[in-house]
Design goal:
This protein is of the alpha/beta class. Helices cover 38% and strands 20% of the residues. It folds into two domains: 2-156, 3-Layer(aba) Sandwich (Rossmann fold); 184-433, Alpha-Beta Barrel (TIM Barrel). It has 16 helices and 17 strands. The strands form four sheets. It has a seven-stranded mixed beta sheet, with helices on both faces. Helix 12 links the parallel strand 14 (333-340) and strand 15.
Amino acid sequence: MKVLFINPPPREKKRFENFIIPPIGLSYVAASLKRDGFEVEILDANALQMSWGELEEALEKHGKVDVIGITGMTPTIDRTYRTAKIAKRYCKHLLLGGPHGTIQTHDTFKDCPEIDIIIMHEGETTAPILMNKLDKEEDISKVKGIAFRKNGNVVINPPRELIKDLDSIPMPAKDLLPMDKYRYPMSKHKKIDVIITSRGCPYNCIFCNKTMFGNAWRARSAANVLDEIEESYKKYGIRSFIFYDDLFVVDKKRAIEICDGIIKRGLRIDWKCECRVNLVDKELLIKMKEAGCSLISYGVESGNQKSLDFLRKGITVKQIEEAFRITKEVGIEKMAYLIIGIPGESKEDAMRTIGFAEEIDADYVQISVLTPMKNTPLFDLANEKGWVVSKNAKNPYDQEVRERYILSTGDIPEEEIEKLVKEAHKRFLLRPKYILKTIKRIKNFNQFKNVLITGAQYLSYLKSK
């Protein structure tokens, strides 16, 4: 059986793009299939910056396969659906994986008639079982962890248990990816890689969907993580890494073991990770810095305690201030994730959050609009309060306009939210202090190029209507 996985192309082909992340989920599932003897390929049309015409040409040249699998996340699901329409005639079975199909299963089948089967939750165990059934043309009605069409209806099978021992999963099949094509705007080196060292999150933020990986935090061993880093370091010449966990630091002892291993193995790398402000201390941060940690992203969300409490963050403003203080003291750069549109906040409250980001000396910010995603406590609460509205809205990140759920609480008029996000970006990014810091951090041509590309992207966004 021949299997082809596709990471969809960008909406528009760009001459310069410095944010291209490897499809780590596809490469994990591909590795599991390879271990079971299946012939697998990955076409990363996004990394190759293919146009839609070039994608079709590539599939035509490749020829028909038994199975095509496509990955799909909600913010970019339009790209997945467009890929499905093109890919359908080149395979016998068209599959979808990734968060969107798991979270919005019925909607996905309705919105994309080309999809035959959805692999839900973690696919590393489910995919080989499913492929064996399809290869032998056997009944798939008892395969756990999938949804499929049958006689015009959608059948959702019982879920499969989440994988307890993450070390049992084979290393992602990076040999199937164009490893020289991946970029991240804040990395020090040209090529980057993504490492997932754990899955799940034990915290209860109101806006977070836990459908994919659950509440239980499951971690790979330090040795297993280090082996993957070392392979990418030696085989592909990667020097910049992103630890893509929801939370890298839950187990402090394991985090220190990973840092010690990086140092002991002589891996001269820089890396970014995600942390909570209540989980870091100076001892840990010093060790992370020694091991090459150059950037930590913190879920700050708001500078207003009442908003943090509404979001069920389980942190305080004082903890945020302390985490940013010691992170700066140690010499690691800091990114603050911020949210605008929190129920109960006025425009002045929202802008106070931007002022707070300046006060704690965040090096970068990522500003999002609070969005009620399905299968979250926020969505349930918003439905109960009558706050959920479905309308055509612009995603602040990718600027794509399409139907999505938004919050309409009456605190800030809907038409003002997008203007407020842009105003917040302007206030933070156009400060002389921020511009000077950006110039000072340039140490090589790759960083200079990243600053130019990212700067042009931000200017285009700030000038847009």
